[in-house]
Description:
This protein is mainly beta.
Amino acid sequence: MEDMYNFTIDSTTIHVVNKVNYTSYTFFIKRDVQEPLIIENLVVEVDSTNIPKASIIKYNLNEPSVYLPETNSYSLNATAEQTPIIYNNTNVKVDGSTSDNPNCFGVQFCSWGTTGGPDSWHIATDVCISENEGRPVSTIHYVEYGVCDSGSGGDGNPTDSTNTNTNNNTNTTSDSTGNGGTATTSTYPVTNCRTCLDSSQNDCNSDMSSNSTTALNNYFGIGNYQNDCNLNLNELLPFNNISELDLFLDSLIENNFINHSSTVENVIHSIRRDIHKMSFSSFPNADLVAEIRLKVPDANNALECLQFQNIRVNLEGNNTFFDWNQFGSEDPSANDGPIVIINESLNTIKVIVSGEINIGLNFEGYPISAKKLITIEIVYDYSTSELNSNLSHWYYTN
Length: 398
């Protein structure tokens, strides 16, 4: 494709959309001579037929793009041209087919978050689709733009399946080189678009604004966050400012550990293994799991209260957003191990574990890996050697 259509694929930034029987991949493409205010993407689609279809989307910008936090997208103020091309230089017939209208290309548009009519609609992102669920009136509009090959009989006119007109859409015809015949290029206005890739806008190594850097330094502390190009921006929770991030992280504090299981490992030596769990986050799903090996007082020993042998805390569930690192040894008798505090007057035995939660997040369009220090306190009843769930929790250290 690159030789046939004279472009180079930039695979450093890829937008992937997965749906039932459908996957699309959007790449930024470069030309030897780059025109100003022009962004071009290669879109490769695979549906239930497993036959890849490719097209080039060309965005003619009227002005530089502006980031829109309400939909985590970019206001492009542009006209987009969709042109089917031959995939992988084979004789595959490329027509941008959809299951509803074979031989034509369809686009989902969204009216949520806009104040104007159809002229200000934008290509629907996953944020739009998520917000649309449960609405009494759908804000998602499926529009078929009639990007058809010459044999399909398509007239090139846009058709809206929701019976809502889309204004100011123009269609032009151009020849598509290769063995696919003559294809119709459909052009339409675009105001917001998260699938529009521009390597200069999405380069995770590019500099943040000084205001954003200052906000992150003040919140996490200098050296406690970094741009992480290994993270997939589209798989991270988006945050447009520190206030949104703070509200989310504060919501993680509201749970307590509960006992999941208690198993006697060695009757003669009175060794028991307890597992306690706490829901750390409901979305994305993640649990903190404390595995504790302890010696309990019984007829086989002269202990007055339990003795902790080993404490290990793990994070189970989604490890894209969160990861956990326990500091020091798991042995309370070690100098760098968990701290044990006995308080007979309160009838409690407390073990304290320190560590850090590593958090992956999409902050203002940048993939960020940040860390927060936390302290975990597991409290047992002094007299019964059972977990006191009400007092077993965690909190931020910084």
